[in-house]
From TrEMBL, chain B:
<dbReference type="InterPro" id="IPR001320">
    <property type="entry name" value="Iontro_rcpt_C"/>
</dbReference>
<dbReference type="InterPro" id="IPR001638">
    <property type="entry name" value="Solute-binding_3/MltF_N"/>
</dbReference>
<dbReference type="GO" id="GO:0015276">
    <property type="term" value="F:ligand-gated monoatomic ion channel activity"/>
</dbReference>
<feature type="domain" description="Ionotropic glutamate receptor C-terminal">
    <location>
        <begin position="24"/>
        <end position="237"/>
    </location>
</feature>
<dbReference type="GO" id="GO:0016020">
    <property type="term" value="C:membrane"/>
</dbReference>
<keyword id="KW-0732">Signal</keyword>
<feature type="domain" description="Solute-binding protein family 3/N-terminal">
    <location>
        <begin position="24"/>
        <end position="238"/>
    </location>
</feature>
<dbReference type="Pfam" id="PF00497">
    <property type="entry name" value="SBP_bac_3"/>
</dbReference>
<protein>
    <submittedName>
        <fullName>Amino acid ABC transporter</fullName>
    </submittedName>
</protein>
<feature type="signal peptide">
    <location>
        <begin position="1"/>
        <end position="20"/>
    </location>
</feature>
Length: 309, 241
């Protein structure tokens, strides 16, 4: 009658992949290792690699969008919009990431539930704040209390994406704001002389030319984002660093079929290789993007590219 | 990946679906503190509290689900409603009782013990003692005069002793005993320390109904001896009721 979240979650790994894994104590080294690396726990580690990559794939474009919005707002001619943009950039950049992550996610989750509570349970008579407790009606819970575990995990994941995107969006906004100001003023003046409107100047002259100035800063941000993914565990998402620590810790024979000493060094070594590989691939891709962006630009690199051609 | 895509679709669907009122009780645990709670080879929550929690849910006729959460943020996530119960080897103390409520205790006040390198002389009042952050053991060391070295997970406290960073680690005896028995280089040292008021399940202060249900189930298990049987199976060093 009761369900175990973990049991359903890790069902991919509960049945051993290799048939000889029934009694690991008697196996030789290679077979033991094959069984060890395919336990349900390790499957969870492999899943978490996917989680991290998915987080990066979603967060990067979303933060770039936030950053673009923030930068455009910060240089807007409408004063309230400008204040909003500048406050966003200053506020988020000023608060330490870890404090932000611990506080913000709980606050964000409570804000969502508060709004849902007001809409769905208008005749609820108890206070929402009862001492330390935050109590909303059952229908306002996000996700609903009786939702399956994977739904809770998905919700947690998207809260994480939103938090990451807001934090990195503020940094990206600052980079883009600077890049927009770096576009030679003569370009804008020429556009104005041709009779382009403010909007046309922005979209046709400023935006296409600013990327080359923004890219070094943005590529830095990407590298920081890649390495910031272990913060995921603060948000309740089990990431690769969590699993490396959990799997690598010394295990006594009483609680596992695969006892071993402190293997954290090997797990962290594997993580090191993973992250180095990720940054290496990123460097190569970013170098190609940079070469493309400088093409035809009025910068030193653009000029060099023109002469070389 | 597919799981997550499906998740988004279902999340969108469930928002518009009228669902029965929440009847699932979510049990939050740490999953890193054998034999109380740990993640087994299959990746499931296992241990004394897994077996106890499942039995209590069956007796209280509740549908329960297990979730893991980092120890550091285990109380904030309870009060903000991300799960309904903490069942993570958490001793009942006055400080915690100000923030959350506890059910009846399901273990006796459990002895804590020191673990050190085999044959080491440990200065309990002036040495460096490791403990997990936010535990009763950590506050005991802080008030004893020894230098407290805190770690986020129980695993790291043991590694600190092995690595020589700390002279000894203070933790629940039931946690340290299997480690001392299975590793030749470590041993329990000194005398046991009695801390806390036994281990209970933590619930939100506003959740009196759930607290009553679990307390009743715990008392029932105490009365018919099934709790003692579980304690003998998982925590052989601990006192029974």
């Amino acid at each position: 009658m009761y369900r175990a979240a973990r049991a359903t979650d890790a069902s991919i790994g509960t049945t051993a992949i290799f048939s000889f894994c029934t009694d690991p104590g008697t196996l030789g080294d290679a077979a033991w290792m094959a069984c060890y690396l395919t336990t349900g726990k390790h499957m969870a580690l492999y899943w978490s690699v996917g989680t991290v990559l998915l987080l990066l794939a979603i967060t990067a474009p979303v933060s770039l969008a936030f950053g673009f919005g923030g930068a455009a707002a910060a240089r807007s001619s409408v004063a309230p919009l400008r204040w909003f943009g500048k406050t966003y950039i200053a506020l988020v950049r000023g608060v330490p990431d870890i404090a932000y992550f611990l506080f913000f996610v709980i606050a964000l989750d409570q804000a969502f539930e508060y709004v849902r509570h007001k809409v769905k349970c208008p005749d609820w008579d108890q206070p929402i704040r009862q001492g330390n407790d935050f109590v909303v009606c059952a229908a306002a819970k996000l996700p609903l209390g009786n939702a399956p575990q994977w739904m809770h995990e998905t919700y947690g994941f998207f809260l994480a994406v939103l938090t990451f995107a807001l934090v990195f969006g503020a940094f990206a906004a600052n980079v883009l704001y600077g890049a927009m100001r770096a576009v030679p003023r003569a370009q804008m003046e020429t556009a104005e002389a041709y009779g382009l409107t403010r909007r046309q100047c922005f979209w046709r002259i400023l935006v296409p030319q600013m990327w080359v100035f923004a890219l070094p800063g943005l590529s830095n941000l990407w590298m920081v984002l890649v390495k910031a993914t272990p913060l995921l565990f603060l948000l309740g998402v089990e990431d690769i660093v969590y699993w490396a620590r959990e799997l690598g810790g010394a295990k006594t024979p009483r609680f596992t079929d695969y006892p071993h000493g402190d293997w954290r060094m090997w797990y962290f070594l594997a993580l090191l290789v993973f992250y180095l590989f990720l940054t290496w691939v990123s460097e190569r891709v970013l170098a190609r993007v940079m070469a493309r962006l400088t093409h035809g630009q009025a910068t030193v690199a653009g000029e060099a590219a023109r002469k070389a051609a | 990946m597919k799981k997550i895509l499906l998740g988004t679709a279902a999340l969108a669907m469930s928002a518009s679906m009228a669902l029965a009122q929440g009847s699932v009780v979510r049990l939050g645990t740490e999953g890193a503190y054998p034999p109380y709670n740990f993640i087994n080879d299959a990746g499931e929550v296992d241990g004394f509290e897994r077996e106890l929690g499942d039995e209590l849910c069956a007796r209280a006729e509740l549908t329960c689900e297990w979730v893991t959460n980092e120890w550091d943020s285990i109380i904030p996530n309870l009060v903000s409603g991300n799960y309904d119960v903490i069942i993570a080897g958490m001793s009942i103390t006055d400080e915690r009782d100000e923030v959350i409520d506890f059910t009846s205790a399901y273990t006796q006040p459990d002895p804590s013990a020191y673990l050190a390198m085999d044959g080491a002389e440990v200065d309990f009042e002036g040495g460096v003692i490791a403990a997990q952050a936010g535990t009763i053991q950590a506050s005991h060391i802080a008030s004893s005069g020894a230098t407290l070295l805190e770690f986020a997970t129980p695993d790291e406290t043991i590694a600190a002793v092995r690595g020589g960073e700390a002279d000894a680690v203070l933790a629940d005896k039931a946690f340290l005993e299997p480690i001392a028995a299975d590793s030749a280089d470590l041993a329990l040292v000194g005398e046991d320390v009695l801390l806390g008021g036994g281990i209970g399940m933590g619930v939100r202060e506003s959740d009196t109904e759930l607290k009553e249900k679990f307390s009743a189930a715990i008392d029932e298990m105490k009365a018919d001896g099934s709790l003692n049987a579980l304690i003998e199976k998982w925590l052989p060093a601990s006192a029974t009721f």
